[in-house]
Amino acid sequence: MALSAALLAVAGDLTQRINDGVAARGFTDIRPAHGFAFARLAPGGATATELAAHLGVTKQAASQLVDEIVRKGYAERRPHPGDARARLVVLTERGRACTRAAEEAAVDVVGGWAELMGEGEVRALWGRLARIAPHGPIKPAW
Amino acid sequence: MALSAALLAVAGDLTQRINDGVAARGFTDIRPAHGFAFARLAPGGATATELAAHLGVTKQAASQLVDEIVRKGYAERRPHPGDARARLVVLTERGRACTRAAEEAAVDVVGGWAELMGEGEVRALWGRLARIAPHGPIKPAW
DNA sequence: TCTATATGGTCAAGTTACTTGACTGTTCTG
DNA sequence: CAGAACAGTCAAGTAACTTGACCATATAGA
What's the first-to-final CA gap in chain B, in angstroms? Predict the structure, then answer.
């Protein structure tokens, strides 16, 4: 159970720091959940239902999240080529800028880890984590 | 950012599996957050304010959580020896049984990891995590 | 000691990020 | 070309928090 707490502590700390870094770069109106949505949208966009599956929430919740990021100018809805029911959600330039800010912030934080334990160790840690739960839920379950 | 997602995936997966294991052992009316509260209460109890600090929530939220676990029979409030303002929250036998169930479930899950990557690797992983964010937030920040 | 401030806890109300349920319009399947 | 499956939306409900106001006790300073 201590291992579980350690994992949560690291995940929570990292998420918080990245969010702080993103806010420090001028994007103060978004939450970490939006960042994980951006990650799914970045390579070519996605539908609301795909986003829902990625985040582990209902399609209604995903749709609400899309409403919000569209309203705030981070994404836009386009007609889906090849499926008239669906709408493709794609990032705007602002959305891509925010995603870059998140990447920068993540590099900063993980760089701090590298000072603590060495670059190779960080890579090894990453590799092990990726093998344990490759399709685990992104959102918290509690 | 992929590292962040991997961490969250593992933390979420582990938390979920432990909770499922606890439910399978007959404790179906609690959430992971309660488990983290139990971990703080187990060695001699704690006040609501201490619990709030441990979980990273307001004292009101902690107090509500205590109300709930008291109502469900997992803990009880006692007068605090040496501070008439405070009340010491201690686990009941049911609370301790639930904590043991959580430990068992955790052992099961982490045992699965050991099959995947070896016992030594799991220990190494644990050690590194503990060094990265020894006082990170237990609760999700998003 | 007495007073001022800090602290532990509770009560009440408000907020937010979800959920469930019902519905429309479009696309697959046999 | 009917009927099931699916993308999306609208509306309402809910759970787990939050903020704010308050009381009782404790601690520190004059």
Answer: 15
